[in-house]
Amino acid sequence: MVRKKKAGLNRTMESLSPDDQDYALWLVLIEATRYIFKAIELDMNQYGITPEQGEVLLITKAFNSQLTPTDISRLTCREPHSVSGLINRMAEKGLVRKAKDLEKKNLVRVVLTNKGRQVYENSKERQSIHSIMSILSEGDRQQLISCMSRLKGTAIDEVLRHYRPPFLRQLP
């Protein structure tokens, strides 16, 4: 079924105008993203977290709990009010806590709790993402990273032509 759909998509792409081909390619990217997200969501559910919460656990651990909610907003490309709500829900679950910055008293840092570290460690397996990504060779991975990075940069430039969202004002 998947191969038939793939062949049909290739045939459809060839019959479209260049503008429509760009739109169809965008739809393929969106569909792939949605299915990958859904698979990750199913994985994360078994640990009692959402993919968004898993992302915050990952980056908070990567930055050794040195991030502010604003930093998290920028790194995740989410609006500050969305990140604030996300962090509050995670704090209610005992996954993170907000700690006053010792040097700058008006800043709050997001700190992993022991429970947050444990949930992160348990969820690291992320079987579905490994299974999905395993179809890519190392060359495919490097090429995909390169292509997606270029698309991301161009998309950021396009957004900035019209609007400067809070999460793009300054990246850490």
Fold and architecture overview:
The protein is mostly helical and 172 residues long. It has two domains: 1-45; 50-168, Arc Repressor Mutant, subunit A. Helix content is 68%, strand content 6%. The chain has eight helices and two strands; from the N terminus they run H-H-H-H-H-E-E-H-H-H. The protein has a two-stranded antiparallel sheet with strand order 1-2. A hairpin with a 7-residue loop joins strand 1 and strand 2 (108-112). The protein is globular. The protein starts with a helix and ends in a 10-residue tail after the last helix. The mean pLDDT is 86.
What is this structure's SSE topology?
Elements: H1 2-15, H2 18-45, H3 51-62, H4 69-76, H5 80-92, E1 96-100, E2 108-112, H6 114-123, H7 127-133, H8 138-162
Antiparallel strand pairs: 1-2
- Text of the CATH class of the largest domain: Mainly Alpha
**Would you give the CATH topology of the largest domain?**
Arc Repressor Mutant, subunit A
Main beta-sheet strand count, sense and barrel state: 2 strands, antiparallel
Rg from C-alpha positions?
Answer: 19 Å
Percent range for helical residues?
A: 55-70%
Give the name of the CATH architecture of the largest domain.
Answer: Orthogonal Bundle
* Distance linking N and C termini: 44 Å
Oligomer: single chain
Strand content: 5-15%
By CATH, the superfamily of the largest domain comes out as: Winged helix-like DNA-binding domain superfamily/Winged helix DNA-binding domain
Mean pLDDT: 86
Low-confidence stretches: none
Helix-strand category: mainly alpha
> Strand tally, please?
2
Spatial strand sequence of the major β-sheet? 1-2
Question: Rough shape?
Answer: globular
